[in-house]
Structure formats: structure tokens, C-alpha cells
Amino acid sequence: MSQEIYNIEHTGFVDGQLVSEVSVNAAHSIFEGHFPGSPVTPGVIQMQMVRDILAQHLGRPLRLKALRTCKFLEILDPAANPSVTINIKYKAEELVEVSATGQWGSTVFFKMQATYVYE
């Protein structure tokens, strides 16, 4: 389902962190109900972007173990902002400790700190 809602365009390292450009599909049917006439990318989808980018980078599936903080600061309207930059700082050992943000330009949509485990 997630690959229909968004697509990870490219990922690289910048200043010691993982940086990905993600495009959001404003035409996806989920936005017909969330919310009609005023589409909002669901928070869970934004969090899933982080997990999918990190899992792709590490080459292993991940599962969320703990969410220490998660703040949605601005509405991610896929029509107004069809792209988002995901910045991820992480430390991968037995657990994967993550600090991530989603933004476009100076607009920050979310910030989160989480712990993932390898599946």
C-alpha cells in the first residue's frame, strides 16, 4: 500500500545523516476520505516513510519498538507539497535508534525519535 501513496525517489548521505526525497501521490484514493477537498497525508504514513527508507538503506526489514517523541508540526498536503525531504540520523546496533524529520524547504512537517528492531 505505501508504495502507491508515496515513492522513495532517491537516498544519500549528507553531513552524516541519511537524506531521502519522497514524492507523495496526491491522486491516491486515501485522500478522498482524508479529507475531502483538503487532503492531509496521515501521520502514520509519514512515520512509515522513515521506517521504509531506513529498512531499504540497511537491507533488512524493521519493526517499530518504541516511539519516544513524535510531533506533527504542519499539515502535509500532497497537492501543495508533492515532495518531502526525510532526514534520518541513526545508530544501528542490536536496536536501531532514530531521530528523523520530514520537511520541504523551511517547512518542517514532523519530528520523531524512535527505536526499531530488526525483524
TrEMBL record:
Transmembrane segments: none annotated. Residues 17-95 form the ApeI dehydratase-like domain. It comes from Dyadobacter linearis. It holds the Pfam family ApeI-like. This is ApeI dehydratase-like domain-containing protein.
